[in-house]
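Our platform keeps sequence and structure together, in a single record for each protein. Such a record has a labelled line for the sequence and another for the backbone structure tokens. This encoding replaces a full spatial description with a residue-level series of whole-number codes. Below, we set out a record of this kind in full and without editing:
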Amino acid sequence: MSSSTEQVLKTAIKQHLDGNTKAALGLYNKVLSATPDNLVALVNQSAILMDLHNFSGALSLLERALIQSPNDVEALNNYGNSLTELGQLQKAIEQFESANEIAPKNSTISINLGRALLRRGDYEKAIKIFEAAIKYDPDNIGLRFINALALPIIPDSIEQLQESRNRQSVLINTLLKNNLQLSDPIKEVGITNFISAYHGYGDVEIQNKLATCYRNACPQLNYIAPHIGKKSQHKKIRVGFVSAHLGSHTIGKLNYGLISGLNRNKFKIFIFHLGTDKRKTDQIRDKFRNNVDEIFFLKPTLTAMRSSIEKIKLDILYYPDIGMDPVSYFLSFSRLARIQCVTWGHPVSTGVSTIDYFISSKIIDAKLNDSQYTEKLLRLDQFSTDYSRPILPNLTKSRSDFNLKDDANIYFCPQSLFKLHPDFDKILGEILRADPNGEIILLEGQHQEWGIKLRTRLNTTIPDVTARIKFIPRLNGSDFLECISLANVILDTLHFCGGNTSYEAFSLGKIIVTLPSRFLRGRLTMGLYHQMGIKRFIAKNPEEYVKLAVKFGVNREAQSIAERDIRHANKAIFDTQTATKAHEKIFLEVMKFNHH
């Protein structure tokens, strides 16, 4: 490399370290024009492209880098990260494993490998990686948090599930006692306690402790916007909706009616989408453009998000979901509006003290459940979402299109595999024993290993009937509805039931057998039945669940009458605007009592 190119590279690295990415990008390009195989320029440029969410661009640079130097640890690590972002988890794990073999004491690689293994469902393998990494790097606080958050996505058994939660509890108590420091938890931790909600236990205590740990470790989370505590100068109440999931995601479907339906004479409406992905930004613009005052697409860093939101001087900040992604979770620790509330996009208390209200419904949330929230629980009289009636496909497909038997009684459980709690195995077994002509249909997981792990568990818990549990490939939106329409009965999962899928099944008039749990997350289907004025498919115990499923799975006449009743009643849950009116009333009331 000539001395002038070397000088350009030095300047590029300095600009990169100073955060001048645009200048650095131009200089790295210059270096690569002169020396296309320059390893440092290739790897560093890939890091900038990853920050800009151009993962395919980063990938091609890294492929070139690895041809030059197959054992370059940084190139392997960045390659693994790009593959993860592009959804190629298996391939990403291979890169992280190669890097980990070369540099077993590099905690950045250990974290990436461990997190990828967790996502794939390899819980035991992941915690071994984390525990080894902590021995090498005991002062890495992000690593300690990630280790504490590790839980199995598809538990092998109730015992493993309980042991993993006990382990989590001990580790979080230890974090509470120590004087820890984090500077950017989105980057250093990068995961939430998402999977805990699927385990069927109360989570409020662990959520509360976790939030306290973060507040202590990272004082910058405790940010308060300058307009808080000052009297509002605006004629209309300013409401901001903030999420990373408002496009075609479930969260977008559940909240479209509310965001679009609020009275624009009383409220000024803003959307803050966390992320700049072009496909999502186009979707959101098309969907909401005419129904809100302004839409902002925020770079998902704490400072960028906070400064954009605080400029609007919001009265109310509404989180449709907290806990599904680290970005909105850590943002929620700041006080950016006079009133901050959350609803059940991820149906569990946040534990975050700056979230004032949790918006739920009297027909879902049992009176007992106040103690399950750190937020003040606000119950609407009716279901708390205004859902648009799904546009149904022509329903031209037959069972053979999905490799299902024409003469079988099909029980379809269309939920993500991590909702299938080990407690549910026994119920599935009893349904198949009571109906020898029955088949249970499940959808493959997001990652192939989830299905493998679940099959292994079912072969242990109900080995006599697993031959009649069929996994079918994941489906696109219209095929999903086609497949639901071909089932005899839809099975709702225990502890954490369907939300969006229940709306979709009811739009087709399908019977969903449900067994409500103690907590909100297992009571949503029941709430929809209550709103429709139908109660006969809500089981009181596992035995009744099995009886109901088999009765309607076997008896075509009973099934047909029930489906007609659901089709007739389902107008009570679609396009009603009652939840939006109830939200308007609540927003006006909480603003009256606002003391922030």
User: Anything to note?
Assistant: The two ends are 61 Å apart (CA to CA). The longest helix spans residues 158-177. The chain has 24 helices and twelve strands.
